[in-house]
TrEMBL record:
GO terms for molecular function: nucleic acid binding. It comes from Fischerella muscicola CCMEE 5323. InterPro entries: PD(D/E)XK_Endonuc, tRNA_endonuc-like_dom_sf. Transmembrane segments: none annotated. Residues 12-112 form the PD(D/E)XK endonuclease domain. This is PD(D/E)XK endonuclease domain-containing protein.
């Protein structure tokens, strides 16, 4: 009987944290303009709720990440004991990961299953996923290094004068970026914001912003000659 008692406690403990994560995510997405749809018939779906906005549906799996890890499996308990099953691509679209140490929710796609999302800059040269790159539904993200946050590996301290506590460069809104990509080349936009071309490409991908076709700017230049 002891395993069942332990299992029941695990299920209760896990469910409480899952409820916290789902509540935080629903509140955050609602503020961002999403309509939230929750299952009322089946409790065994591989996702917790659906978010709807701009004619698009997103299946969401909410997780509480006390250790900043994007949990890659579900756990349940029955009379036969404790069971686990790994999530598969196709089970849902995005995680809603609640990070209790900063009281924020981030939204990596199911492809980030099992990874760690960092909220504190590590004293290590190893690249890491940074939480601010997942504040919107994110299918792709690069890994920055300590250099982008002013970490001095010699003293193992963070240079607070050089580190910006929010985002190193505040990226433009979707509407602003959509306007900019048709006004000037990506290289010029990158220069204006003090970032790399790759960073601008990433912004466009995250927002779903359509860029001019290849050769567009060459043609524009030739038209002025």
């Amino acid at each position: 009987m002891i395993p069942l008692i332990e299992g029941s406690f695990l299920l209760h403990h896990t469910k409480n944290k899952g409820d916290v994560a789902a509540t935080k995510a629903i509140a955050d997405l609602t503020l961002k303009g999403y309509l939230i749809l929750t299952p009322v018939v089946c409790e065994h779906l591989p996702f917790d709720f659906v978010a709807y906005k701009d004619n698009k549906f997103y299946r969401i799996q909410a997780k509480y990440a006390g250790d900043n890890r994007v949990v890659n499996r579900t756990i349940w308990v029955d009379k036969k004991g404790i069971h686990q099953k790994k999530y598969q691509v196709g089970d849902f679209d995005f995680y809603a990961v609640y990070l209790p140490d900063i009281d924020k929710v981030v939204y990596p796609s199911v492809n980030f299953s099992g990874c760690y999302i960092t909220t504190k800059v590590p004293n290590s040269a190893t690249p890491f996923y940074w939480w601010e790159d997942f504040i919107d539904f994110t299918e792709d993200a690069s890994k920055p290094t300590y250099k982008e946050f002013g970490v001095d590996l010699t003293t193992r301290k963070v240079n607070l004068d050089s580190r910006i506590h929010t985002r190193k460069v505040e990226r433009p809104s979707k509407a602003e970026l959509q306007k900019l990509v048709w006004e000037k080349p990506t290289t010029q936009i990158a220069k204006d914001f003090g970032v790399s071309d790759k960073a601008v490409e990433k912004w466009c991908k995250v927002y779903g912003v359509e860029k001019p076709p290849r050769g567009y700017w060459v043609k524009k230049i030739n038209e002025k000659i």
